[in-house]
From TrEMBL:
Name this protein carries in UniProt: Deoxyguanosinetriphosphate triphosphohydrolase-like protein
Gene3D superfamilies (alphabetical): Hypothetical protein af1432
Keywords: Hydrolase
Lineage: Bacteria, Bacillati, Bacillota, Clostridia, Lachnospirales
Organism: Candidatus Enterocloster faecavium
Keyword Aminoacyl-tRNA synthetase: no
Molecular-function GO terms, alphabetical: triphosphoric monoester hydrolase activity
The keyword Hydrolase is annotated on this UniProt entry: yes
Domain HD: 75-186
Length: 336
């Protein structure tokens, strides 16, 4: 028996009957030989961790555009926090940690530069619209590896697609990531907003914090415990009604007081105009796209508008600014 088979046998002995077992995956779009060491979901986790799109997340906005300071969250640190929360829950419920982690690490690969403001403008100007959860799937199915994709298992791709609020993951591991995403961003965005002096902990509405907790640490501990105790040995991932209502209430308060606040949104209009300008430029000068994007049109027959959207969505904040300056900002004329 090889190492992978030994690990799969351990899953059969240890995991909950409601878990997603590695040797029962619905498989990959393209058949591949099995690894002699790693079960399938672990291979997917590794592929995501090593891909270029994952590395670019470190220079993509979470909430605060181009923040002054090293301690504000980026899309990468958000992803890591989601992964940590999700793994804690999955391990406690004896579900598949590798599948959970793969979904968590991949859920935001398709996010645009400048956070949801970038997503909003691309959805407005792109011919077929834009949604980051759909783009994340496109990244792993098509865009990575020069158009070959990562060839991930069906369960990982399903979890990535359905991590949004309106999503319905087909696995309990995907359902864990869907909730962990909200738990992570509600709490770390509060932490960042307090750091930005938008409000203090005491100014959060007590109707929610009296239930959830009066610090980031307390709220994380409370919500994670609630999910574990309400989902133990059940075929679903749930929160208690009061806890879920408080979480939704605090999330709504955050939308009103943080996500739509003038401090994080101060540069939003400029960022959106920049993205729109880049989009229009590359539509007119598609030959300026990197070769791997041109191949998407030549070999796959993808629309020009779709490929231009792919290119811009994949940019980091810094790279988008650099491209804009290169294309649209006059350079000083200097005679030596």
């Amino acid at each position: 028996m090889n190492i992978r088979e030994s690990l799969e046998a351990l899953e059969e002995q240890y995991l909950s009957p409601f878990a997603s077992f590695s040797n029962r995956t619905r498989g990959r779009a393209r058949l591949e030989p099995l690894c002699d060491i790693r079960p399938e979901y672990q291979r997917d986790r590794d592929r995501i961790l090593h891909c270029k799109s994952f590395r670019r997340l470190k220079h993509k906005t979470q909430v605060f555009l181009a923040p002054e300071g090293d301690h504000y969250r980026t899309r990468l640190t958000h992803t890591l926090e989601v992964s940590q929360i999700a793994r804690t829950i999955a391990k406690s419920l004896r579900l598949n940690e590798s599948l959970t982690e793969a979904i968590a690490l991949g859920h935001d690969l398709g996010h645009t530069p400048f956070g949801h403001s970038g997503e909003f403008i691309l959805n407005q100007i792109c011919e077929d619209g834009f949604a980051h959860y759909e783009q994340s799937v496109r990244v792993v199915e098509v865009l990575e590896k020069d158009g070959k994709g990562l060839n991930l298992t069906w369960e990982v791709r399903d979890g990535i697609l359905n991590h949004r609020t309106a999503g319905h993951p087909s696995t309990l591991e995907g359902a864990i990531v869907r909730l962990s995403d909200k738990i992570a961003y509600i709490n770390h965005d509060i932490d960042d907003a307090i750091r930005a002096k938008m409000f203090t902990e005491d100014q959060l509405p007590a109707v929610y914090t009296d239930i959830l907790g009066h610090s980031v640490r307390e709220r994380l501990n409370t919500m994670i415990h609630d999910i574990i105790f309400n989902s133990m040995d059940k075929p679903e991932i749930t929160m208690s009604p009061g806890m879920e209502e408080a979480m939704k209430g605090l999330r709504s308060w955050m939308f009103a007081h943080v996500y739509k606040n003038e401090i994080p949104k101060a540069e939003e209009g400029k960022a959106q105009q920049m993205i729109a300008s880049l989009y229009e430029y590359y539509l007119k000068h598609v030959d300026k796209l990197p070769p791997e994007y041109l191949q998407l049109m030549e070999k796959r027959g993808d629309k020009k508008s779709r490929v231009v959207c792919d290119y811009i969505a994949g940019m980091s904040d810094v790279y988008a600014i650099d491209q804009f300056e290169e294309l649209f900002v006059p350079k000083r004329w200097n005679v030596m």
